Amino acid sequence: MSEVNLSVQLGPLRLQNPVLVASGTFGYGSEYADLVDLNRLGGIMVKGTTLHPRAGNPMPRMVETAAGCLNSIGLQNVGVEAFIREKLPFLRRYQCAVIVNIAGDSYEEFEQLAERLDGVEGVHALEMNISCPNQERGGIHFGVDPEATREVVSRVRKRTRLPLIVKLSPNVTDITVTAQAAVDGGADILSLVNTFVGTAIDARTRRFKLANITGGLSGPAIKPLALYMVWRVAQAVKVPIIGMGGIMNATDAVEFLLAGASAVAVGTANYVNPRASMEVLEGIEQYLREQGEKDVKHIVGTVRRCKPGNEF
Amino acid sequence: MRCAEHCEVVANRPVATNQFEIEIHCPTVALHAQPGQFVQMRVQSGYEPLFSRPFSVFRRFPERGNFSVVYLVRGAFTQMLASKKPGESVFVVGPLGNRFLVAQPANEVLHVLVAGGVGAPPLYLLAEELVQSGVPHQQVVVVNGARRQDLLICQEHFAELGVRLWTVTEDGSAGAKGKVTDVLKALHERGELSGNRCQIYTCGPTAMLEAVAKFAQKHDLPCQVSMETLMPCGMGVCLGCAVKVRTADGTDYKRACVDGPIFDAAEVVWG
């Protein structure tokens, strides 16, 4: 059996394979290390990291919905200093890429996070989480405003030499506009999508199910929406894309690659099955063999129109 | 040592109204589960419901590589679990979480295990461990409570261990009429409970845990509670099972799945 090449080059970031685990769904890697061989992952996008530790939102923070889940964790995390001191040394032992997801409330916080992590051994890239409330701009989000997106990305770009990934919010009218803004600001790679804002109500008690009222929807429920957005953005920009949103198995992952993503991230599926990322990786390899493909790059963006009269 | 694998169902038998004990072949859990620890189980093939569900380990049968949990049928997931027949499989991740900590010196402490309804199983595993490790039977008190007799579980298992068993139901259909805290009050009035030689361990509905914790606090008794919450991942990463706890400088959130499910009752912020 011939070897299949799974390594991918995302702009300046090389990954040994295209399977990552999404921020907030895999902790800092150590939580899964006895069940998942971290050396086999393409990369780990660590829990969203802020300048200072955060306690997070009140409970309830997470609720199941039809084929999905709403979360309003509130960026509970140890803060960047504790991440570097306590979490990173463990991750350095593995050969997968370590991508630090950074979240700031202001331009300055993003700048400080980027500066702090630049040149830190064992950090391979930054992923900017720009769907947090922007205090400076009266509570709107960086990620839904193209000009704020371009501005925050360009400020971070000036303060780091690391490959820069910008994670796009899907809560916009036209995601290609914010995608282009992120590229204009200097993004090397785009990751999409983050969660969709939603809510859930308990009819019996007549109350919201989340303490925070709203949360971010993830899981299989959002896959068609995410897939569409990845396909749209792949047409619109030239930088590589990490596709995510409801990937539960290898077939889902392959669909994102066909839509134009150069790599994928497994998120909510990690909760359902700790080994989901490994099964996705093995399944992609098997798919490529079955399709007679020797290199995963060759299928990226190759989706074609459906053939009329051949639906079944 | 823990696993994430498909495991065979060995038996699935009723133990009370709407409650079943499912026995599963899973050597890792059978060998390594500690009292208070849990497993995440998945029986659905699709995405309804999406998440696994946590269940405390009830009995271990290391020689045949099996363990069991008790569950109450009350939703789509537990209905699917109840339909599982011997020979079919369930997906098991575990054992997970921390364990009840046995107060020391174990032979001198009065161990008071307070169970409410379907919360009894992990306390059975603890009682069994205490007895097997040589703690005198009279030093192990089990207060087993439920709303009605037909919802009371683990009775015969506790009886077999020879521990001091107090039964209490809200309607008086089995044992004394009242609540588990009424039994604790009675024990306290008899002078059996005192802080330096007594340890309470409790598992059950949250309202009961809170009542037991407040009783313990009032009388300055050490108390460990097993917190129940939705646990989407069980691995400590989703942060969806947060438990509010007191810290030196205010409050913070801990994760029920990895920092718990067993907490010192004194640190939990209730309500």
Task: Describe the protein in words.
- Chain A is an alpha/beta fold and 312 residues long.
- Chain A contains 8 helices and 16 strands.
- Chain A has helices at 80-91, 107-117, 146-157, 175-185, 223-236, 250-259, 269-272, 276-290; strands at 8-10, 13-15, 19-21, 43-49, 62-65, 68-71, 97-102, 125-129, 164-167, 189-192, 196-199, 201-202, 207-208, 214-218, 241-243, 263-266.
- In chain A, the strands form 4 sheets. In chain A, strands 3-4-7-8-9-10-15-16 form an 8-stranded parallel beta barrel, surrounded by 6 helices.
- Chain A is globular.
- Residues 133-139 of chain A have low confidence and may be disordered.
- Chain B is globular.
- Chain B folds into 2 domains: 3-96, Beta Barrel (Elongation Factor Tu (Ef-tu), domain 3); 110-226, Rossmann fold, CATH 3.40.50.80.
- In chain B, the strands form 3 sheets. In chain B, strands 4-3-7-1-2-6-5 form a 7-stranded antiparallel sheet. In chain B, strands 11-10-9-8-12-13-16 form a 7-stranded mixed sheet, sandwiched between helices.
- In chain B, strand 5 (59-61) and strand 6 form a beta hairpin.
- Chain A binds chain B through residues 24-27, 31-32, 34-35, 47, 55-56, 58-64, 66-69, 71, 73, 76, 219-221, 248, 268, 270-275, and chain B through 2-4, 42, 46-52, 91, 93, 229-230, 232-233, 235-240, 242-244, 251-253, 258.
Give the helix level of chain B as a range of percent: 10-25%
| Proportion in helices of chain A | 25-40%
Number of domains of chain B: 2
- From the alpha carbons, calculate the radius of gyration of chain B and give it in angstroms: 18 Å
Largest interface: A-B, 36 and 30 residues
Helical run tally of chain B: 6
The tally of domains of chain A stands at: 1
Largest sheet strand order of chain A: 3-4-7-8-9-10-15-16
CATH T-level topology of chain A = TIM Barrel
Total count of helical runs of at least 4 residues of chain A: 8
CATH architectural designation of chain A:
Alpha-Beta Barrel
Distance between the termini of chain A: 32 Å
Q: Categorize the overall geometry of chain B.
A: globular
Radius of gyration of chain A: 19 Å
Give the CATH level 1 class of the largest domain in chain B: Alpha Beta
CATH topology of the largest domain in chain B: Rossmann fold
- The CATH level-2 architecture of the largest domain in chain B is identified as 3-Layer(aba) Sandwich
Low-confidence runs of chain A: 133-139
Helix/strand structural class of chain B: alpha/beta
